[in-house]
Amino acid sequence: MTDPEARSTAEFTAALRAHEDRYWHKHPLHLRLHEGRLAPDELRLWIANRWYYQKWLPQKDAAIIASCPLADVRRRWVRRLADQDGSEGRPGGHAQWLDLAEAAGLSRTEVVDERHVLPGVRFATDAYVAFARTRPWIEAVAASLTELFSPALMRTRLTALRTHYPWIAPSGHRYHEARPDTATHDAGHALTLVTTHCVTRAEQDAALAALGFKCEVLWSILDALEHEHTGRGR
Ligand SMILES: O=C(O)c1cc(C(=O)O)c2c(n1)C(=O)C(=O)c1cc(C(=O)O)[nH]c1-2
Fold it and tell me: Which residues pair with 90 in a beta bridge?
């Protein structure tokens, strides 16, 4: 039976896409990064902290797979693990992010041992992983829909890195060169899942809340960094 209160697919999609206003591309730290106004140490701190978000993504995605009863969804979603972890002969996003860290003058050791990770970044990222572990799988899929907005941001960032931070070796740019296309495909798949499986008003509301929560996770990550950069963190 259809829910008379449910949004049409077009209305629901528009409501999801409207979350772009809350996405972290507008955060002051991203704006400063894009304008070339981050000092080398500030950029390095951003890279080391963004690693912490990145490193948890496969475990977040494994949590979605673990709670999803649908084989078709699991079969497609599992690709996300190799996209970050890599597979035989193919480096994944994690290796590419560590290349960026090295190209920017950080050692792999100091990134991987998380010595630069700020408490706020840890709390925000951990909250996203906990969400995926505890909420219905489709809500965690909805939370991943910030990726609808990430390709444009990553392309802007790549141009900014090349233009304003030429001291970063080109070997560091592979992540940002490769990821926007993958993100576009992944986000398209996730959007189809959410619009197909969230058919009642309550399910749609839960998906919208999940995406709102995720926007806050990302925004909080940058707030923690901005606080540190402006010297109020210590
Ligand atoms: O660099 C970025 O700004 C950015 C943003 C996001 C995002 O919007 O969540 C992701 C990524 N990158 C990314 O690289 C990535 O693999 C990714 C996975 C997810 C997710 O929630 O499943 N978001 C993102």
Answer: 87
205 pLDDT above the threshold of 90:
yes
Rounded CA-CA distance 17/128 in Å is 20
Contacts of 2 (CB under 8 A, 6+ apart): 199
Q: Tell me the CA–centroid distance for residue 150 and ligand 1, in Å.
A: 7
Token couple for 190: 């996730």
80-104 as b/e: b if 16+ CB within 10 A: bbebbbeeeeeebbbebbbbbbbbb
Q: Which domains does the chain have, with CATH numbers?
A: 25-229 (1.20.910.10)
* Most informative mutation of 46, 47, 57 for ligand 1 (most atoms within 8 A of CB): 57
Read off the pLDDT of each residue in 127-154 and give the average, rounded to a whole number. Answer: 98
How far apart CA 66 and CA 33 sit, in angstroms, is 37
Q: Which of 131, 135, 112 is nearest to 55 (CA)?
A: 112
Mutate to test the pocket of ligand 1, among 57, 147, 181, 211 (most ligand atoms within 8 A of CB): 147
Closest C-alpha among 116, 117, 194 to residue 148: 194
**Residue indicated by tokens 């965690």:** 140
- Of 85-89, 128-132, 152-156, 191-195, the least confident: 85-89
Q: Taking residues 54-78, what's their average pLDDT?
A: 98
Q: 132: Cβ below 6 Å to ligand 1?
A: no
